[in-house]
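Subject: Sanity check before I submit

Could someone independently write out the C-alpha cells for this chain? I want to compare against mine line by line before I put it in a report. The sequence has 349 residues.
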Amino acid sequence: MKKLIGLVAVLMLFGITNASAITVDDIEYPGSNVTVEQDPNTKVYTLTLTGPAIQDLIIRDGEDVVLDLNGNLLVNFTLSCEAIKVETGGKLTIVDNSANQGGRVTHVADSTYGPITNLGTLIIEGGTFAVEDSFYVIRNEGTAIINGGTFTSTSTDTSLIGNIRYVDETVTPVLTIEDGTFTAVSNTVKNNENSEVTINGGTFTSENAFALDNSGTAVVNGGELTSTNNSAIRNIINNVDGSTTSLKVAENAVLTSGADKENYTIYDATLAADVTEDYDVTLDEDGNIVLTEKEEIDTPVEPDEPVTPSEPEIENPSTSDNVLTYAVLGGISLVGIAGASLYLKKRNN
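---
Independent answer below. Compare away.
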C-alpha cells in the first residue's frame, strides 16, 4: 500500500486526482489528464491522455471507444482493478498518435489484476504494455486484434498474453496478431483450452518457455517465434477437460529454438509429462501439425552362440586287452604246432 500511496503522491504533483472504476462519461474532470470527445454521428468516444493518468477505466456494453495514449502513462488506481477493462459488448481501440510513441499501459506494484482484461472487443494499434508481476499483460476472454505495439513481461511464471475462457463458458476467446514485438521470460502467447489464436506476423521471444504455448486451436501463418532456452512452440495434447488441440504452422513462419531443442515440444496434459520423444512431428500438405506416435521397436535378443557338437570319443582298446588278445592267439598257435608235431612223430614211427 505504501508503494501505491507513493505513486499517487508523485502523480498528484502533476495535478492528477483519482477515481475507482471510472466510466467513459465520467473520466474527464479537472486533473484527470484525459479529454473526451464523442462523434455525434458514429457515437464513438475518443479519449486522449494529456499527461500521466491513474485510472481504472471501464468500457461498458454498447460503448465504442478510441483511447489515444498520446505518449503518456496509464496505470490503475485500485490494486484490485485493471487499468483497463472492456466488458462484454464493449469495444476499445488503443492507439498512440504521439511523435515519440511513448505511450505506456501498466499496473501498480502489488496489484491483483493485470493491466488489461478484455471480455468484449479489443483492438491495439500501438503503445507499450508491460508487467513485472505474475499477471498477463493482456487477458483476452473475448475478441482481440493486435496490429502493433510493444509488449513485455519479466514474470517468471505467467505468460505475457493469455487467451483464455474463464468468465463466460459459452464464449470462445479469439485472438489475432498481425504485428508487434512480444518479449517475455515465460511464454509470450498462451492459448488455453477452448480458445483460438491466429498469428500472421510479429516478433515473439521467450527466454525460458515457449513463444507459443498452445492447448486450443492455433494457426501460425507468419511471424518470428523464438525461444532462447526452449522450443519455439509447445503443443499440449489430451487436455484434462477433453477439449481438442490443433496446430497449423505455415512455411512462412520462422521458428528458432534453444540449443539442442526441437522446434516443437509435445506435452500430454493427462499424463502431466513431456512426451516429445514418443512422437514424430511433421507437417501435412496444408501445414497442419501431424503427431505420429513412434512404434516401439523390440530390441532383438542376440541368439546364444551355437554349440558345435563334439566328435564322439573313439574308445581305444586298453593295453591290457591287447596283451590278453595276443596271448590267447599265441596259445592257440602253440597248441596247433604241438599237435602237428605229435602227429608227424606217430606217423614216422
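---
OP: Matches mine. For the report I'm noting this point. The first helix runs from residue 2 to 12.
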